[in-house]
Amino acid sequence: MGLCKFAIILLYLLPICNATLSNDRLSLLSFMSGIAVDPQGALKLWNSSTVHVCNWTGIACNLNQDRVIKLDLSSRLLMGTISPSLGNLTYLTILDLSDNMFQGRIPPELAAISGLLQVSLAWNRLEGEIPFQLGRLSKLNYLNLGSNKLVGHIPEPLFCNGSSNLEYLDLSNNSLSGEIPMKDGCDLKELTYLLLWSNSLRGNVPRALSNSTNLKWVDLESNNLTGELPSRVLTQMPMLQFVYLSYNDFVSHDGNTNLEPFFASLANASNLQELEIAGNNLGGKLPPIIGKLSTNLVQLHLDDNLLYGPIPPQISHLVNLTLLNLSSNLINGSIPLELCRIKTLERLYLANNSLSGVIPSSFGEIPHLGLLDLSDNKLSGSIPDSFANLPQLRRLLLNSNQLSGQIPPSLGSCINLEILDLSHNQISGKIPGEVAGLSSLKLYLNLSSNYLTGPIPLELSKMEMVLAIDLSMNNLSSTIASQLGNCVALEYLNLSGNHLEGTVPFSLGQLPYLKTFDVSRNQLTGEIPDSFQVSTTLIQLNLSYNQFSGCVPNRGVFSLLNETSFLGNNALCGPIKGLPTCRSRNPSRHIMLWSFVVLAASAVTFLYIFARSLARRPRIRESMEMYKDDKNPESKNHEASEELMIPRISYPQLYEATGGFSPSGLIGSGRFGRVYKGTLKDNTKIAVKVLDCCAKEVSGSFWRECRVLRNTRHRNLTRIITICSKPDFKAIVFPLMSNGSLERHLYPCHGFRQGLDLAQIVSICTDVAEGMAYLHHYSPVRVVHCDLKPSNILLDEDMTALVTDFGISKLVGGDTDTVSSNDSISFSSTDGLLCGSIGYIAPEYGMGKRASTQGDVYSFGVLLLEIVTGKRPTDVLLDEGSNLHEWVKSHYPHNLGPIVEQALLRSAPHSITAEQENKVWRDVLLEMIELGLLCTQYSVSTRPTMLDVAQEMEGLKQYISNPVSESSDGIPHKI
User: Is 470 an active-site residue?
Assistant: First the structure.
């Protein structure tokens, strides 16, 4: 039965309060008939014959319960069109359909609701032009049509309708064109927020806008607006707080030479907090009057313009500035010492200018400075020792200057440093061990193109989280230490253009994520290690201009290379074009020899990994003994000694940091405790996991998680900052992840938007797979996580995923994948505990099997299927009576279309062109479904390993970034 017929029947079945309410009901049911998809069941009550219309989801009525006055269905993932029948809800005052997937046009019939006060249709997929009839809504004070696909000109009646009630207008992030239609005589005196960013608007900022003297927020960023900066308009707005004019075609006054009138126009805006005029090609000097801007100013963006001359010292009057960006201009002169008087500065960008002189040592007096970018200037002198005084410093970019002297060892005191770039300078001397041992570096270290001498420090092996190391084009000598193989997160390693000698360590070929390796132009000798041809991640390899000898293999990455990677190595031979053929008197013997080499490489790899495990055996055995008997005095002594090996924090410090473990700071809870957010005295944002100390198993969980986190280092695993342990209180302190958990993004609540597109989802799944592959195959102590699920996956500020919560994990010795009860080098304190969460638990666990890496693979497969289908595994158990694997399998392979379409609707792709969109994203989603089904097979032996899974996810990630680079069959490679 059609929905419209159903609606008519309901009119006879339901008790009718009066004719007007029945008309409202009919209009709502007509609106419901245009809803094609309702994944959350928001309209389920609307089908009920016993529920009063005023009690329907999203509906509010007036006091008499005889008219509908509010319709709010925001953030319900509804898909369909907006019915013109809503125009019959004549008493409606609030209409909010934002954050859904509505398509089609905005019905002009909405203009018939003369009493509308608020309309929000933002974050949908609405198309066409904005109906000019909306300008007739004279009582409207809030209109938000942002983040849709609207085109055409902005209707003039929106700005000039004879009404001054409009306070909030948001048309941002669409494809609107034409001028801002505000002619002289238009009067929007109540307008407080004007958001038109990210459109294609052109022309000048209209003078009539100066009548809106109550404006607090003006955002015209990323359009094609022209003319002089709107000084005469802004000077009439003393209430301004946020002004965004970046990325237009504005010029400064007097022929693009004078910025003083613009800054003078803002001098009376005493509440101004953020000002952005970047990317406008503005000319002129920075005038001293800039120091007269509001002392409440927090962010100032002037980058990517044509500003010249020195930085005025008066800028130091902006005493609350946290971000200053003057990069990519023509600014010259020295860095004024007065700039360092702004003690609130957190981020300072002065890159790509013509600054000269020395780097002021007083930078070390800015206590909260976290990012300093002085790259691409003409700075000289030495690097100040005072950087060691900056506990918050995370990114230091001094590259492409004329700096000399040596690298100060004091930089090793910057324990939170993530990026250090000193490349393309004239720095000499040795690399200090203190700097090479900065284990906090997790993005890159670049010391290339200097005059550095001496050996590569062994301390470099402590950088277990760094992604890239570049020491090229220096005068480094001696050999390459095999300990560099401990930098397990490395993806890029460049040691070219030095005087290195000896052989290339076998361990470098075993780096699990290495993609680029360059040792060209050195004096290296010996044969190419066989470990490089076994690598599954290596893409680029440059061994040219050395003294290598022997036969070049043609397997692995070598099958992708040509002779340019081996130039200048006269003793090399092999099957690669351009190299001489290796001579062999006995071809069959030659083949046998190669087989032996491959087998030997595999054996050496196994022995190397096994040897690292043996080195850890005493610690594992001690750990096992501790868990055998919690009452054993020797166990307690061992526990005490373990405590001393982990830095601790006092209970009062944690109590103060979390506001007395305030409920308002609670960000999670689980089986063994709760997690609070807090801030230490040095402003470090932390997450504190407090464990309930009422059970013996909780003590084991605490020490197990500490041990796992201490013995593993990977960019996709959470790291432990410190612990707090008392007889009646135990807590683990982690860095606070600014983007929360994956669960929060998949199932948003309390106004939190999902905000994940498919590129981010693939990247997150790849991160998780790599973190799990490390735990299973490369960690010094093998770890079975046992509880992989969205709430145990955290996202940092760059949306990098980190696996967390090792409270019920199991440690595995050796290379075995399964924890055996007879395994003398494994231990577990989770006996009697369910290994995971319902819906993610591998089926073999229910049959008494012990935890295994293949159980984690199963959980990862459920995670993939959950993300693609949008269904929690527990929801399928309740609604369908089967697990998620069976539910998806029942649709495979011919009925996956609706699942893929829903996934596309939930996550709009933004990174590729419309022509590629359908093919690429459908390919990716189908691959993820197939991979999820493979991982969740009931037979343990047929599931892939996490190494296989990580490789497959990395392939999908690369396919997304370069869709035209695909396999011969037109789709990403399948397992």
Answer: no
